[in-house]
Amino acid sequence: MGRVHDHRHDVLVVEDEPLILLELMQMLEELGWHATHVASDIDRAMELARSEKFEVGILDVNVRGRTSSPVAEILEERHVPIILATGYSTDVISEKYPQFTYLQKPYVRRDLADALTRALAGSTVEMRNRA
């Protein structure tokens, strides 16, 4: 599969499982993205979400027993597109956060590419609606 974009884009990744994180980072690289900011706990993720710049956030829904919703809320306030990754059913989560893009675990590169495309398309529509 080709690159989603012609140049590298920065990503915030929040994931507490080391093997999933490594695989995700490799897939992002193959798609032309770069995980410039990585957190394996919610407190660090919130710090990064408040202070750093990136074009999209990929958040595991459950990180060390805590929900990533505080991180998602910060990103949403900053108008950063959000992808929520989960191995659980997305039904309950999507009712609370229908505006986010969901990535069902386990996923492959094509699923990730599709989620990135959907998240950025949603962000573009939102920006146009605010203008």
**Biggest β-sheet: strands ordered side by side in the sheet:** 2-1-3-6-7
N- and C-termini, Cα separation:
34 Å
| Tally of separate helices | 5
Largest sheet features: 5 strands, parallel
Shape: globular
Beta-strand portion reads 15-25%
Q: For the residues shown, what is the average pLDDT?
A: 88
Radius of gyration: 14 Å
Helix content: 40-55%
Got a strand count?
7
Poorly predicted runs are: 1-6, 125-131
Alpha-beta classification: alpha/beta
Name the helix and strand elements from N-terminus to C-terminus, one letter apiece: EHEHEEEHEHEH
What's the short story on this structure?
The chain contains 5 helices and 7 strands. It is an alpha/beta fold.
Protein architecture, described:
With 131 residues, this protein is α/β, with parallel strands linked by helices. Mean pLDDT is 88; it is low at 1-6 and 125-131. The protein is built from five helices and seven strands. Helix 2 (42-51) packs parallel to helix 3. It has a five-stranded parallel beta sheet, with helices on both faces. The chain has a two-stranded antiparallel sheet with strand order 4-5. Strand 1, helix 1 (18-30) and strand 2 form a beta-alpha-beta unit.
